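Convert to structure. Protein one:
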Amino acid sequence: MTKSKVEKFLQENSDPEDFIQQEKIKRYLNLRRLFDKLDTAIREHGAVVTVENGKQSYIKINPAVTEKEKINVQLLALERDFKLFLPKDNDPSKLPPKTTVEDEEETLV
């Protein structure tokens, strides 16, 4: 599996000796993978789904949307807690990467 731009950035800009920080990075990357898989499920099935229960049929929000919101909260909390070595100057080559869905999809298994 190839490394995403985000994974490379986090590894290059964090302390490899800080085991707690490295664990947070692993957790963050795991959550991003789940987030992306939920995104795929939402694209496949839509934001709302039709549920059939016997003769009844009703429309409800796709459960993946709710789970994605929960994961987003966790991702934001981890991001706030990262202690990264960010450059003091505004050198664009050293700033966090801008990713697209396509960049991250290649890393999904």
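Protein two, convert as well:
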Amino acid sequence: MLATRYYLQQTSPDQLKPAKKPDIDVEFVQSREPSPEFNRYLYTAVGSDWYWAFRLDWDWQRWMEWLTEPGHETWVAWVRGTPAGYAELVRRDSEVEIENFGLVPSFIGRGLGGYLLTKVLQRAWAIPGTTRVWLHTNTLDSAQALHNYQARGLEVYKVEEQVEKPQADGPKLEPWPGANRAAPPSPESRAASG
């Protein structure tokens, strides 16, 4: 499928425009123990709606090699003990790439995306020697993704059209049957209506 890919960057921590903390109990925690099972869960839970398939055929050993690669960090947003989203940072020399970033579908629309990205960018800039933080997204990702990145101060430095995610031409990926359904209402909205 032809898609537009956007490359975005910050070259100074002063470019960060923080989002406010949402009105829910959220923690931002580094996953310090490499766990292929956990990271594969995060990858499929967050990425299945956006055609993330690059790592689906990785075996356990390949996941472990990725997670223990020098400069790799996994950060998870937790809401009341439940993983709500995550990011993987990869430091190479003085640059930090936000390799994967997103929310579990049931947490989309609850004010977490901007806050999570703020925390991820703050962490990237806190890594000693960082001179640039960058990522890329494309038109197959969430419609809010590009806006969120730009709202946090990331600037587009390159745009290209390319065949992106060949699996997008087929049926949508699902980590399990029925996973690509509308997100359930938040606990707050269920409590307010009940």
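The first strand starts at residue 2 and ends at 10. The chain has a mean pLDDT of 87.
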